[in-house]
Design a protein that fits this description.
- The chain is of the alpha+beta class.
- It has three helices and nine strands; from the N terminus they run E-E-H-E-H-E-E-H-E-E-E-E.
- The chain has helices spanning 23-30, 41-73, 95-104, and strands at residues 2-5, 18-20, 36-38, 77-81, 88-93, 114-115, 120-122, 124-131, 137-146.
- The strands form three sheets. The chain has a four-stranded mixed sheet with strand order 4-9-8-6. The chain has a three-stranded antiparallel sheet with strand order 2-1-3, with no helix packed on it.
- 16% of the residues are buried.
């Protein structure tokens, strides 16, 4: 019996493949569990439409991430921390504090996205790289000031 796979199945095929399986395997296992459907023209067309919708959603998500990277590049943030009169911080500023500062600016930045060569231990202006996706990286400034 020919079936259209609804999910990836190890050693059988990937989602959308039309495979030939034993009738009992299709009727008793694949179809009842929603892993496959009969390979009719209507089911193939429905799967094609579903794939197109998923591709559109994925493209929209990628565009939103690119817009986020552009917003991050045009935004700088300020982190206030206790410091000595000479400008040495009591402690250090890491990705967590930088991410919180960007969240205060309304940008959803996670600490894992931030690339700092080392923790910041002095007052000043620092260039920070934020990796939104593998293709979209934003470079922005972080101002560290005394509280």
């Amino acid at each position: 019996m020919e079936v259209l796979l609804q999910e990836d199945i190890e050693r059988l095929g990937k989602r959308g493949d039309v495979v030939d399986v034993a009738d009992g395997y299709a009727r008793n296992y694949l179809v009842p569990r929603g892993l496959a459907a009969k390979a009719t023209q209507e089911n193939k067309l429905a799967l094609h439409r579903q794939r197109q919708a998923e591709e559109r959603e994925q493209q929209q998500h990628i565009q939103e991430l690119a817009d986020l990277a552009r917003k991050i590049e045009t935004t700088s943030c300020t982190v206030a921390a206790p410091a000595s009169p000479e400008g040495h911080l009591f402690g250090s500023i890491g990705p967590d504090q930088v991410a919180d500062a960007f969240k205060d600016e309304g940008l959803p930045v996670e600490p894992g996205m931030i690339s700092l060569p080392a923790h910041i231990k002095e007052i000043g202006v620092y260039t920070v790289e934020i990796r939104v996706t593998a293709e979209h990286t934003a470079v922005t400034r972080v101002w560290v000031v005394a509280e």
